[in-house]
């Protein structure tokens, strides 16, 4: 298909953290937009320069610029977490810059924060700018249709599983435990997806606590129980995957209440421009490891524990074929929506259901109070989680209700059964 004569200008802005497949969306949007007769402008570093009214950080994109980038990780336009909706002056600069450049259509690529930012661009522009948001996050926690992942998740899981399998073999070879802290600020999809697919010893996610307050000691006791159970069976090694959202669930209050100002040992409590705890500023893995080593002394047991964060290695990986294809569909769908009559009535988050374009109006997907999308949590009542738990090595009710099991566990640490039950029974409600 030959490009039509230019009939308008479309801008592309990438916000939030990287995810595999961003370049695929940029490529697909650019190609389809040019074929539809639009000039395409890629803005560098998200809204970072736009809020300053700076017009020196964008470039015009042609098909030749993007035809070979869809299989590459990262973002040719960069990204940032700059929030233009934070104050009036920033939003005014963004709108004026778009107006001066003649931008009449906008595609944003990002998570829930970028979705809110672009929804405000749409509303403040008063119909002068059509807006489509392509949702991305390796966390897979945006409220798309059931079984519809956010792009980047499948690639992140794929590479994460490879890393975990290598570490599992290292753990077996060297008789040690690895504690991996998986990205996933608000949900445990990535941690569980990687842990389940790689057959990690256990995975712990915030959803399994069903909304109740999460206590650091309880998280550590779950892992400790797994370690002792493995040890009883002759395996002094393993891999535990923890969702970083556990840290968010413990919360600033829970972290700040640590004895003797110990929090300073592991970092400091900070928030990003969108109000989220900067989880990367706190060494959660080291915090858990140190607490576990203290708890192991209670049983006169010595183990080697290595903590490792897992996430940054995954965000800019080259997309696997699933995401390479998926992002083509999303980018094409974004332009198709922007050229439709519906785009003149509402801005939308681009979604595909059963292979068909299903744009979700901002008003339906953004909470007017929190100004964010509702978080899609792991369904801990479904068979997917049931299967995952079934194949983990964790203390369960049978370990306390079947006398032989309880006696074996207690004997492995030279305790009497009743004492072991009193110490760990609360984890399973006995």
Radius of gyration: 24 Å
CATH classification, class level of the largest domain: Alpha Beta
Strand content: 5-15%
Mean pLDDT: 93
CATH topology of the largest domain: Rossmann fold
Question: In short, what is this structure?
Answer:
The protein is of the alpha/beta class. 42% of the residues lie in helices and 13% in strands.
Written overview of the protein:
- With 430 residues, the protein is α/β, with parallel strands linked by helices.
- The protein has 2 domains: 8-151 and 319-365, Rossmann fold, CATH 3.40.50.450; 156-315 and 391-421, 3-Layer(aba) Sandwich (Rossmann fold).
- It contains 17 helices and 13 strands.
- It has helices at residues 22-35, 63-66, 88-101, 112-125, 153-174, 189-198, 216-232, 245-256, 263-266, 284-297, 312-315, 321-338, 362-365, 383-390, 398-401, 403-412, 417-424; strands at 8-14, 38-43, 58-61, 105-110, 130-135, 177-182, 202-204, 238-243, 305-310, 348-349, 352-353, 356-357, 360-361.
- The strands form 3 sheets. It has a 7-stranded mixed sheet, with helices on both faces. Strands 7-8-6-9 form a 4-stranded parallel sheet, with helices on both faces.
- The longest helix is centred in the middle third of the chain and has 22 residues, at 153-174.
- The chain is elongated.
